[in-house]
Design a protein that fits this description.
The complex is a heterodimer of chains A (250) and B (845). A six-stranded mixed beta sheet of chain A has the order 6-7-8-3-9-10, sandwiched between helices. Chain A is built from nine helices and ten strands. Chain A is an alpha/beta fold and 250 residues long. By secondary structure, chain B is an alpha+beta fold. Chain B has 26 helices and 20 strands. Classes of the chains: A alpha/beta (250), B alpha+beta (845). At the A-B interface, α2 and α4 of A face α13 and α22 of B.
């Protein structure tokens, strides 16, 4: 097993008005290659902050994040941007797509930003593969406003995996969706992990979503409260997880 | 309601940069308006002052025709007429300062000399001597100079100067000592302040005049000016013209009207751009705060209350902009005063009339409110349900803003027309058409913007494909906003291009005119009439080596159908030999021969147009000399352009008619043509010969340069004002881009998370702005050329392909793109500095 991502004693303090808020109070974790890890917790527990630090969107107040052996917490904006473009993929809760670009252009966005022509050659194939993975082949020319909410999130997943990133970070990707659409998204994330060996870190407050993971980290008040190992399963029933969560008092 | 008022204020304070930019935009628009008002008022006052200086208390001014003069007997007779209290004789001539004593003074052209009677004149004119003393004896070798001229030439009391006199004047007659300096420009109107005042006796000796060239009459209180004017006929044998102070003022005003009308047009455009800025700002507020507005409505605020919150914001913006604009406007007017003077030939007074200023401030407030009406009503229509949505509906705005545009444009036009009272109706209507076509262009801009935008984006796409793609998409998202932004800049740039094109055309036709009609390379200007015939300077100068031809010209005035016309006495044979004049009707050779044979006249085409005459060769026309019987002449031909006269093109008559029927006693200038290739060598020899005869050589190129420079100054001034309009439009771009960035906070967050660098984000915003600017440049250039053609067509000139001012077009392109991209600086920085974490939050605000 190869270590892909490691967080060491992360803290994050925000200034709020005259006081401060401690969003993270010392979090350490490690993610192995090919793993599907869920970070779970109630709102305000600091789980989204943790994900943002892991992806280099923000800097920790103290502590370090190591991605593929490279310390990223202190990176300047340009190298951090480069890292995001090449080594991480993000899926947010909503509004993931650029409305003026069609499906294909949205998926190929990381290449376009890097100045790579994604209309031909190897890159074009990767874009097509990513679209196929999320089962949107045939809708390449559609604009985001012509897609359902679930389809839009699947486009976001395709964009996140298209560069073959070291890690895919998803922040409540099903938060805005109904049950069956949510399942559609989680299935797509699961396929990227199972079929492509994509490492996935998913932040959620929903046990049904977390149940797709191999391992669930339970966060509360800025600390990791517990770790629940579910192991890789093809069946994603939430019952075992919910039982375990009840044991830790959630 | 007090609470709602606070809301209006807070809403402006919440976006301080935007509010300040908007106030600045309104202020600049108002400033141009105020500068126009102040300049117009100043010109008005300057005209009044010039008239007072020139004619003083005189009720009638009697001027001798052309080079003729009144003899002393006639002056006495005029003074003895019933009803005349005072008849003050004077001599008015143009001459040059000899450079020996005052090397700096001669370079700027002729000076106006007024010879006055030291005893009688103070009873007519009050000439205020601000330094030194007044003239005392009528034959002393002393002079007064105007303060303006003294300043320009570095002269002080006690300095000697020498004036160029007639060839037969006794040596030393022109050498005088300055004894005093008179206020302002001095008593000669239209001399741009280059005035020297001599005792009349000295002036008589200097110019070889016996008597006077002008009589200023003060009448008894109960005398009727018209009957006195009738009586004059019997008293004066010499041809003369009678003018009243009102007529003089009218003719001076006519020369400023063209210029002031164009200034009013520029003011309208600047104000319009400012109105657009207000509209944009308040639209943004409404869009951004739709949720807040909806909450207010849900909490029970009435539509009227919501509308009033937005209108209150407009009042704050309008008042702040108006006040700052008043100050800026007065400063702008002061700054432009020098240029204005060159443009209208009168001292530009800074006449700050409270009524005018109040009116300007009111108009700027009114325009602001008018611009705010649409966003305010839109806010009123926000439904309480909107509070539940994350973003207000952006669509269905096209019709609303077209109506807005037309409404505001009409109000601006009306406002400027009210302020531009006293404009010549023809001028006003011409400018109104120009303004209407500019507004039409602004309406057209959003329709063609997408297509032009795609074209303009191509070069950007080569360097930054993804940025260009995203920028273009952003512009397409809110076509109304894009259209208005492009529209404002387009109109401002159109104005710059149109002004430049009209200026280039004017310059081209001015120099083409001079070269096409003047039969010489240099003009020798005479101070006193040059006698024709075997003696005198004409044969002497013709004998100088390298001179091919010397042709005498005299300009004088005639009346036609009750109007004053310029006329010129010319030699047909010389014009034929020199190949000047373009005939549009009649045979050139026979027409020019007919001039020399007497009884014929050649008319400029512009005269036929002016009087709507349908004349051709063989028709007869009656011209009235200043006095004496009407002269009937046969039209020998029509020329495209006649010789330049004082106020327009001159009708051409032969020398024999001029001397026999029109009272012309000699030539006032000689046109000298050099033989091929001998120009440089000959010019010096000719100048030497000319000075012997009291003639001042002026190369044609210098005349041409003077004309084009004067035009350049006028249009330069208008350009400055048009640039202010461009600046206002640029502020509009800043606002639009800032809004576009706010709209896309989420999107920018996603782009940054996907790996877009800050530099790329900045570039994206700059490219967006560049495309906006590019569209405006393309439309502005095409529109400007079209408007220029339209304006020249309206002014009755034949429609021709305009002289395309390439350098200006290049400058406009650079200016449009540069200003737009500069305007992007602040929004681009804001966009690039967005923290990703905040941008990707579910509700980024």
């Amino acid at each position: 097993m190869t270590l892909v991502l490691e967080a060491r004693d992360l803290t994050k303090t925000y200034r709020l008005g005259s006081g401060t808020v401690e969003a993270l109070r010392g979090v350490s974790l490690a993610v192995q290659a090919g793993e599907f890890v869920a970070i779970m917790g109630p709102s305000g527990s600091g789980k989204s902050t943790l994900l943002q630090l892991l992806g280099g969107l923000d800097r920790p107040t103290s502590g370090q994040v190591v991605l593929e052996g490279q310390a990223i917490a202190g990176l300047a904006d340009d190298p951090a941007t480069r890292l995001r473009r090449e080594r991480t993929g993000f899926v947010f809760q909503s509004f993931n797509l650029i409305p003026v670009l069609d499906v294909r252009e949205n998926v190929a966005l990381p290449f376009a930003i890097a100045g790579i022509d994604a209309r031909r050659g190897e890159t074009a194939k990767r874009v097509a593969d990513a679209i196929a993975l999320v089962e949107l082949t045939g809708k390449e020319r559609h604009r985001p406003d012509e897609l359902s909410a679930g389809e839009q999130q699947r486009v976001a997943i395709a964009r996140a995996v298209v560069t073959n990133p070291a890690i895919l970070l998803a922040d409540e990707p099903t938060g805005n969706l109904d049950y069956s659409t949510g399942t559609e998204i989680l299935d797509a994330l699961w396929r990227s992990c199972a079929e492509l060996g994509q490492t996935v870190v998913l932040v959620t407050h929903d046990a049904k979503a977390a149940a797709y993971a191999d391992r669930v980290l339970v966060v509360r008040d800025g600390r990791i409260l517990d770790e629940i190992k579910l192991g890789r399963r093809t069946e994603h029933g939430a019952a075992p997880l919910i039982a375990r969560l009840a044991q830790v008092g959630l | 309601m007090g609470g709602l008022g606070a809301l209006a204020w807070r809403s402006l304070a919440a976006a301080p940069v935007r509010s300040v930019l908007t106030v600045l935009g309104v202020a600049l628009g108002t400033a141009v308006l105020v500068a126009t008002v102040v300049t117009a008022d100043g010109a008005d006052r300057a005209v009044d002052l010039a008239v007072t200086d020139a004619v003083g208390r005189a009720d009638l001014t009697v001027g001798a025709f052309g080079d003729a003069s009144f003899d002393r007997g006639a002056i006495e007779q005029a003074g003895a007429l019933p009803g005349v209290a005072v008849a003050a004789p004077s001599i008015e001539r143009r001459t040059y300062l000899l450079p020996d004593l005052t090397p700096d003074a001669g370079a700027d052209g002729p000076v106006a000399v007024l010879g006055i009677d030291p005893v009688l004149d103070p009873q007519v004119r009050s000439m205020e001597v601000i330094e030194g003393s007044a003239l005392v004896r009528d034959d002393e070798q002393s002079a007064l100079v105007s303060h303006t001229f003294a300043d320009a030439a570095g002269l002080t009391v006690g300095d000697p100067i020498e004036l160029l006199g007639a060839a037969d004047a006794p040596p030393g007659t022109g050498a005088v000592r300055i004894v005093g300096i008179v206020r302002g420009d001095g008593p000669v109107a239209g001399a741009a302040g280059r005035t020297v005042i001599l005792p009349i006796g000295t002036a008589r000796a200097l110019f070889g005049v016996d008597g006077a060239t002008r009589l200023d009459l003060v009448l008894e209180p109960d005398a009727e000016p018209a009957s006195v004017a009738d009586e004059l006929g019997a008293a004066l044998a010499t041809p003369y013209v009678v003018t009243t102070p009102a007529e003089l003022a009218a003719s001076l005003r006519a020369s400023t009207s063209d210029f002031l009308a164009t200034m009013a047009l520029v003011a309208a455009v600047a104000l319009f751009a400012g109105a657009f800025l207000v509209f944009n700002t308040l639209s943004m507020t409404v869009t951004e705060r739709a949720r807040e507005v909806a909450l207010l409505r849900a909490a029970g605020a009435t539509r009227g209350q919501v509308v009033s919150v937005i209108l209150r914001q407009a009042v704050v913006l309008g008042l702040a902009g108006g006040i700052v604009g008043l100050v800026l406007g007065v400063l702008l007017a002061a700054l432009l005063a020098g240029v204005v003077r060159a443009a209208i030939g009168l001292p530009a007074l800074l006449a700050v009339s409270p009524v005018g200023l109040a009116l300007a401030a009111l108009i700027s407030l009114g325009v602001t409110l008018a611009a705010a009406l649409e966003p305010a009503l839109r806010a009123g229509r926000v439904s309480p349900v909107e509070a539940l949505r994350s973003r207000a509906d952006q669509g269905r705005r096209r019709r609303a803003w077209i109506l807005w545009l037309l409404g505001v444009a009409a109000i601006v036009a009306l406002a400027v027309l009210i302020l531009g009272r006293g404009l010549d109706p023809d001028e006003a209507s011409r400018q109104l058409v120009a303004y209407a076509s500019l507004v039409a262009l602004a309406l057209l801009a959003p329709v063609v913007a997408p297509v032009v935008g795609r074209l303009v984006g191509l070069p950007f796409a080569v360097v930054a494909p993804i940025e260009e793609r995203l920028a273009r998409g952003a512009l397409a998202r809110d076509p109304g906003r894009t259209g208005l932004t492009v529209g404002a800049l387009t109109v401002a740039l159109t104005l710059v291009v149109a002004l430049a094109t009209v200026a280039a055309d004017a310059r081209r036709s001015a120099s083409a005119w001079l070269e096409g009609v003047v039969p010489g390379d240099a003009i020798l200007v005479a101070v006193a009439p040059i006698p024709l015939g075997e003696q005198g300077p004409t044969p002497e100068i013709a004998a100088v080596d390298g001179v091919e031809r010397v042709s005498p010209i005299a300009t004088f005035a005639v009346a036609f159908d009750g109007f004053r016309l310029d006329a010129a006495a010319v030699s047909g044979a010389d014009l034929l030999a020199d190949g000047r004049l373009t005939f549009v009707d009649g045979d050139r050779e026979s027409a020019l021969a007919a001039l020399d044979d007497a009884g014929s006249v050649v008319l400029p085409a512009s005269m036929l147009e002016r009087f709507e005459l349908d004349l051709g060769p063989g028709d007869r026309i009656e011209l009235q000399p200043g006095a004496g019987p009407t002269v009937e002449l046969e039209v020998a031909g029509i020329v495209e352009r006649g010789l330049p006269g004082r106020g327009g093109e001159a009708v051409l008559v032969g020398w024999s008619d001029a001397t026999a029927a029109f009272g012309v006693t000699g030539a006032d200038s000689l046109a000298v043509r050099y033989a091929d290739g001998s120009a440089e060598a000959t010019a010096g020899a000719v100048a030497d010969a000319a000075r012997l005869y009291g003639l001042e050589p002026v190369p044609l190129a210098e005349v041409r340069d003077a004309v084009t420079q004067a035009l350049g100054r006028i249009y330069g001034l208008l350009d400055i004002l048009a640039l202010v309009a461009v600046a206002v439009a640029a502020l509009g771009i800043v606002n639009t881009l800032a809004m576009s960035v706010v709209d896309r906070v989420r999107e920018i967050g996603v782009l940054r998370a996907t790996g877009m660098t800050r530099r790329q984000v900045r570039r994206m915003v700059v490219v967006e702005s560049g495309i906006l600017g590019g569209i405006a440049v393309v439309l502005g250039i095409l529109g400007g050329l079209a408007v220029a053609v339209l304006v020249s067509a309206l002014s009755g000139e034949p429609v021709a392909v305009p002289a395309i001012p390439w350098p200006t077009l290049g400058l406009v392109a650079a200016l449009g793109l540069g200003v737009a991209m500069l305007a992007a600086w602040y929004p681009a920085r804001t966009a690039a500095a967005l923290p990703i974490v905040r941008a990707v939050r579910v509700d980024p605000r």
